[in-house]
# Entry
Amino acid sequence: MAMYQPNLARSHRRTGAPIGVLVLLGLVAAALLLASGAKHPAGLIVATPLSALAMSVVLAGYLWLDRWEPEPARLLLLAFLWGAVVAVLVSLALELATSEVLGRGVVLTLAGPAIEEAAKGAFLLVMLTGARRREFDGVVDGLVYAGFVAVGFAFIEDVGYLAEAFGQGTDTGVATVVLRLVLAPFAHPLFTSLIGLSVGVAVSRPGPHRWLYVAAGYLGAVALHALWNSSLVFGLAGYLVVYVLIMLPALVVAVLVARHARRRERDVVRRQLPAMVYYRWITPAEAGWLASIAARRVWLRSVRQRSGPAGARALRGFQQAATELAFLRDRVERGVGPADAYWLHAELVQALALTRAQAQQPLRENPASAGLVPPRPPERLRR
# Structure
């Protein structure tokens, strides 16, 4: 009997982030950036790299969180540009309109937070449509996409505030840098992460009432945002009180929740690996290398040294497909799998065969073993 040869001409996987849309949003974002500092071009030159540096630190935290199943780069870019363009324009238009009726004070403390969090959080609902839905698995994905949206929004907003502040003098500019970029670069990501967390919980739970989590997350984001904005009414003292008593504790809680969600992803992968070995989709040795981020890095480094970038890319695809398969099986077991779970499952099993065929020797000749994972049938077969 001839050996099975998988079709290596696999079609590119759609992510729901067309290049044309990304280019258009990028051009609009550049125009918004220039417009935000049009009155103070010298301030814009100083503000842009400072804001970019602060936001890159925040993004690094979200990328660290997104290690087990990295989200597609196109979707992360789409999230960032949604925040920098769509959320900024919608918020600006609605806040200008409501300020004429309610006054600037009400907009700053109440209407503004509600508008901005709705504009940013809407992207999480967009993620639940079309090809994007298959990339949204749970809490970690909600936190990551919410974070990227909020960072895009904060980047444009900070550049505008800083350019204007530096236009008023160096002392004012430095004070604004300290207040916005040194003490609280995490403010907008923290607010919107409550929405991301709630959407992630909702897609991870069965039942008709799960979307109440989303409403609760949105109200929480608005409340925290409104409290933060209201602190400015009371000057520096009010700012510092809210910062120390509310914002920092909220940040600590958010980090702890994120770490717990990341560990849960690790546990899901480890729990699914024995069944994947049982069905012979992966070998016991491969499962051992998939069981931790550290082992995966060692495996990639060894393959890159032996087979170059092409082998490393194939192995990275193998690791990604195995992780996605583990997450999909976990969701199906918990009763929250997608409608096309069968086809997704078949595609991911095929992807394992494809990437193994592309990697060839790198998967058969590993460095010192990370340990073997013995096969074990799924729990439903052991009852």
The first helix runs from residue 19 to 36.
